[in-house]
Each structure stands twice: as structure tokens, then as C-alpha cells.
Write a structure and sequence with these properties.
- The protein is mainly α.
- It contains two helices and no strands.
- α1 (22-44) runs antiparallel to α2 (53-84).
- The relative contact order is 0.19.
Length: 103
Amino acid sequence: MPERCAECGQRYDLEQGFWYGTGYVSYALAVAISVSSFIAWWVLIGVSTDDNRVFWWLGLNCVLLVILQPWLMRLSRVIYLNFFVSFDKNYTHTAPREFDHKQ
């Protein structure tokens, strides 16, 4: 990942350990995908422990999350960065947002 945005010069790593918060965002995205896939599975196929349909969903959900993990990590970084840095239409005339890196 580059250190700064090539277009506006915004520093991506705003402070030491900044990206640790993306784990919470990634977890929330994974829970949202799991809940939505469970509801879709429940509506389309049904949920029963008698014929192991719930275990099939669990296995397929794990495979889905593993496949989607690179995109979830990138999306969680974008969402987390947008919590702290908002879009500025006049970015060419304003300085990028900086935090104190000395502490």
C-alpha cells in the first residue's frame, strides 16, 4: 500500500497503529455477510439439523468469507479511513489531514 494518495497527497497511516481499528470494521462486515447468507440459506433451502443443512451452510459460509477476505480487508480500510478523513471538493487548495506522529 502506498504511503500517500497519488492524487491529493493524503497520508494513509494517520498515526502509529492506526489500522488496528480496521479489524473491528472487518469483523462487522463478516458478521453482516454471515447473517445475510444465513437468511438467504434459510429462505431458499431451509435450516435443519436433522439432515445437516445448517452444517452445509456453515461450511459454505466459511469458504465464502475466506474467498472474500482480500476484498473485505480493503473495504474495511476504506470505511475506517472515511471515519477520520472526509472528501474535500477543494483538495487541490487545502492541505491533507495530518495527526501528530511524534507521540
